[in-house]
């Protein structure tokens, strides 16, 4: 089956018309070029190349201008395990008019905007805005994001899809400190065992010397002296046995903690490595339905990233005018804290600092990547962090949405 698939993929690169890649999650990708790369399928979209694992593909349908090719179904038994993937789309995401296959017509059954509006009637602009917010699940945890156009483009935090560098440094520092403590404890136990060995050797030497004296002098030995020496040797032997039991118990406890530490350290690092390689992410919409989004770009400079849900028309948030970010204005943070999908907290803008909007709206773990919006449902920024102080509950920050558009200007035509 893989030989046949490779042949068809080669034909697809030599002049066929539009093709369809049907994913197992129900998404459909339309492209003019498809090719096999080991255990991955690469296709062109928006002027760039996207790579996905073959195991994610249900079937590929090939189309010519006048002849429809029979659809080729992927043999699930012939797929290989996933490996590291690089996903890159250098060009801008087109609008609905540029690429109608990416944003289906309103009558299409893949119109998520219409489906969510029907399933979750919106009684307010906030409720309508929540339709555009998604819950993102990763190898390491979860976060939030939101659609920014009707073609499925999602803005979120870089640390949601790649992990927090600051948190990683903090954890690695804690791991190093814990390992140093374990090493010190290991050295203490080794020293204790060395002292015990030396004490036992001295006890054996004293016992042999005593036995030699008894054998040499026999009945001429002072009875009281003999009783005193024998008592001393017995007490010292009891001390050795007690000392050995304590060291064995302490060693067993140390080995237990050492195994637990190494297991947790290795699991944490393995999870981070998996997250660093992850190119597709589960997203959960406001109605609880699950889909798969591909990572388009992670910013090198800011805590920002872009994902893309292909093949659907999506609800999306519109940008608030720059002057809307003003002191004292009421704002709302939407996200999925503690895995509570589409939760809303309220506050006011309490400061403007460079490209950050400061707010007292509660931003909990899981809110990261979600939108900070106005009462009209317009997006002001991307929630990104919370600073805890000793004197108050916390200060939330969001990256200004206009700064987001500047950072990803290729994806936000002005």
TrEMBL record:
Q: Which Pfam families match?
A: Trypsin_2 (PF13365)
InterPro entries referenced in this protein's UniProt entry, alphabetically: Peptidase_S1_PA, Peptidase_S1_PA_chymotrypsin
Query: Coiled-coil regions in this chain?
Result: 161-267
Q: Please tell me whether the keyword Coiled coil is annotated for this protein.
A: yes
Which residue ranges does the record annotate as region Disordered? Answer: 68-109
Q: Which UniProt keywords apply?
A: Coiled coil
Do you know which PANTHER family this protein is assigned to? SERINE PROTEASE FAMILY S1C HTRA-RELATED, SERINE PROTEASE HTRA2, MITOCHONDRIAL
Protein name, entry field: Serine protease
Q: Which organism is it from?
A: Desulfofustis limnaeus
């Amino acid at each position: 089956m893989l030989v046949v698939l490779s042949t068809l993929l080669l034909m697809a690169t030599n002049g066929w018309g539009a093709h369809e890649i049907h994913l197992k999650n129900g998404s459909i990708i339309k492209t003019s070029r498809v090719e096999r790369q080991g255990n991955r399928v690469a296709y062109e979209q928006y002027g760039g190349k996207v790579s996905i694992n073959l195991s994610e593909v249900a079937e590929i349908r090939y189309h010519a201008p006048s002849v429809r090719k029979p659809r080729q179904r992927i043999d699930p038994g012939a797929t290989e395990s996933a490996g590291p993937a690089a996903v890159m789309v250098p060009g801008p995401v087109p609008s609905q008019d540029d690429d109608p296959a990416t944003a289906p017509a309103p009558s299409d059954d893949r119109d998520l905007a219409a489906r969510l509006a029907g399933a979750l009637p919106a009684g307010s602009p906030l409720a309508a805005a929540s339709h555009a917010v998604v819950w993102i699940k990763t190898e390491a945890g979860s976060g939030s994001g939101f659609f920014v156009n009707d073609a499925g483009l999602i803005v979120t935090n870089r640390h949601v899809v790649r992990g927090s560098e600051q948190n990683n440094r903090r954890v690695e520092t804690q791991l190093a400190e814990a390992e140093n403590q374990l090493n010190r404890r290991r050295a203490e136990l080794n020293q204790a065992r060395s002292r015990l060995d030396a004490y036992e050797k001295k006890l054996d030497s004293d016992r042999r010397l005593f036995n030699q004296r008894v054998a040499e002098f026999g009945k001429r030995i002072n009875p009281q002296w003999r009783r005193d020496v024998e008592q001393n040797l017995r007490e010292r032997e009891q001390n050795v046995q007690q000392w050995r039991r304590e060291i064995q118990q302490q060693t067993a406890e140390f080995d237990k903690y050492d195994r637990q530490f190494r297991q947790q350290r290795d699991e944490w690092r393995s999870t981070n490595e998996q997250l660093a390689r992850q190119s597709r992410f589960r997203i959960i919409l406001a109605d609880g339905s699950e889909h798969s989004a591909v990572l388009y770009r992670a910013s090198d400079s800011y805590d920002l990233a872009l994902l893309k849900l292909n093949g659907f028309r999506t609800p999306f948030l519109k940008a608030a005018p720059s002057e809307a970010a003003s002191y004292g204005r009421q704002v709302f943070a939407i996200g999925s804290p503690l895995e509570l999908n589409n939760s809303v907290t309220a506050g006011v803008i309490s400061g403007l600092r460079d490209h950050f909007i400061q707010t007292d709206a509660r931003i909990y773990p899981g809110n990261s990547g979600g939108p900070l919006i106005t009462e009209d449902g317009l997006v002001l920024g991307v929630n990104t962090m919370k600073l805890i102080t000793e004197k108050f509950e916390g200060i939330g920050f969001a990256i200004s949405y206009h700064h987001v558009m500047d950072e990803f200007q290729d994806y936000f035509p002005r």
